Amino acid sequence: MDFGEKFERGLRLMMDAIAEAESNGRAPLDSPAMQAELAEIARLRGRPAFYPYLGSGLGRGARAMMAEGRWVLDFALGVGVHFFGHGNLDLVETAIRAAASDLVMQGNLLFNREYHALMKTLLEHAPRGMERCWLSLSGADANENALKLIRQKRDGRPGVIAFRHCFHGRTTAMAEITDRPDYRIGQPATFPVEYVPFYDRADPDSAAKSLGALREIIRRNGDRIATFIVELVQGEAGFVTAPREFFVPMFEECRRAGIVIWADEVQTFARTGELFATDLLKLADYIDVITLGKILQGSALLYRKDFTPDPGLISGTFSGVTVAMAVGRRIIEKLIGEGYLGPSGRIKTLEHLTREHLERLSRKHPGRISHVDGVGAMLAFRVDDGSLERTRAFIRRCFDAGLALYYGGHDPACIRLFLPAGCLTEDELAGAFDILSRCLE
Ligand SMILES: Cc1ncc(COP(=O)(O)O)c(C=O)c1O
Prior knowledge:
binds pyridoxal-5'-phosphate, alpha/beta, globular, 2 domains
């Protein structure tokens, strides 16, 4: 048998194993054994899991199967990663084929063809002006690379302007920018970070106040600021949206001051109804640098040609996992080719249906649901007063009832629905709202 035949045989064996797992559907553990494993994980990492989620690896579509065999509708998606849900056979097959390659990991010195294919596909569909790409592993990695190349192009200016309540990752520099002092306890401040309030729908003067704050920072400190980093839809803050008109005057102000505009699309990538929130809001003309992650199954930094860094500034051993690169690329192809994007795409349809469910839920439980926000496959709402404690307790109640959700914001917090728009059926969506309604009672 030559290598090619062995290879094909290996693939068949893997596909058979998947088919068998699906038909048997047997849970690997019983409940006490799963609890024991979770307790062991908590001990090893020194912190318990948020809720008792231990996946079996046998999930299907929008439903994850816990290791003990219980099914849970997954509206948390690994914090927005698994757009196509669990066990998507197209992605599984792509993964198997890529797994059979000669390398598990690829690097920046030596790479295989998946490296090229992913970059090319990304740039083909990227907002106008994005002509360069650098791949990396996590969202924070891409952001670190972005910060370095921006500072290099701005003669080492150290400072950053960011939005209040922003989240940009947990590496040293990203934790310094992220507006959560409780996430950097014990960390020294090493560069200037100045904050501008994000859009507040409830305040008619919101846009003017933010623009005023930005102007004041630029007046005071403009020549020390390299970049304005923005989430076009705030993610960890609780899926907070803002209109195009909110951003444009601020971006124009930054342009005049030579401040680079950087869209952190780690969370928004492929979830707003367009591939890029930059395009949804028609802001491509203003944005110089974009970072991506999550749904991409790895991360990437896209930038204008004139931002190309000097050799040596960004690199690193790894550029990605071979399987993740192949699957990331297939995900983009599916999003574009299978009707998910655009005003009448699947994401928008699910957004409308979910908003209708939220309205019904709100009518059924008067005064308990408020602050509905978000766009596309990222929607959020507040339950009761939104206190952190009650929101977390509500999410845990939903998990026990069969629905995995996560929260955003701090205090007040909100429930975030990460819609598995790549597989969610309307019955499953209705099922999720039945659980929400029962858990409100
Ligand atoms: C907007 C944004 N930027 C960066 C990150 C960091 O990504 P990662 O956790 O992959 O490092 C996140 C993660 O939630 C994010 O939402």
